Every structure is written in structure tokens, then in C-alpha cells.
């Protein structure tokens, strides 16, 4: 089963249903619509739920619009968004980096 890791502060947002979108760069898991996922707290490495991928869209990081943030945490600025994702993925993140916008639904 494929898994996705989330920072501890995102876990309550996911469990409440407030967050049902995640953005992933450089997808090495070949995430696809219909995949069942194990959701992992990145800080404790514990499973906190299961989800099913409902849809996936792809877009360049520099083309993200307000509507792309629905169901996703927001950032103070575009600069803060890039800093966050560079922290996750490294300095190769730029305006042309492809983002997989993944909508998921909790199933357990």
C-alpha cells in the first residue's frame, strides 16, 4: 500500500476534513486516482488514517491560483510557499516544477 506523510500540525486538519488536498512534487510513488493510502504522521511515523485518491491534477508551481488552495493549507505569501516546498524537496523547486494536486477522501 502506498503511503503519504504529513507534518504533525496537518493531522488534525485532515482528520476534521478541513484538509482533503495535498500537493506532491517529484512523485516517486506513481500516485493514481483510486489508490488507497496509508496516512502517516511524519514526526511520529505513526499511521493516523487511510484515504482513497479521488482525483489528481497537475500544474506548474508558478501557475497556482487561489482555487488550488481549496482543501489545502494556505501560505502567507508565494515566497513562503516556495520556502516550505524547498524545505521538503530541496532547492530544485521553482516556478516550472510540476505539482500533483491530489484530492483524497478519508476511508478509515
Task: Explain how this protein is built.
It is a single chain. With 108 residues, the chain is α+β, with helices and mostly antiparallel strands. It has one domain: Hypothetical protein (Archaeosine Trna-guanine Transglycosylase, Chain: A, domain 4), CATH 2.30.130. The chain is built from 2 helices and 5 strands; from the N terminus they run βαβββαβ. Strands 1-3-4-5-2 form a 5-stranded mixed sheet. A hairpin with a 4-residue loop joins β3 and β4. The longest helix is centred in the last third of the chain and has 12 residues. It is globular. The two termini are 14 Å apart.
Radius of gyration over all CA atoms, rounded: 13 Å
CATH-defined superfamily: Hypothetical protein
What CATH calls the topology is Archaeosine Trna-guanine Transglycosylase, Chain: A, domain 4
* Gap from first CA to last CA: 14 Å
* Structure class: alpha+beta
Q: At the first level of CATH, what is the class?
A: Mainly Beta
| Overall pLDDT confidence | 95
Q: What assembly state would you assign to the polypeptide chains in this entry?
A: single chain
Principal-axes shape call: globular
Strand order, sheet with most strands: 1-3-4-5-2
Q: What is the second-level CATH architecture?
A: Roll
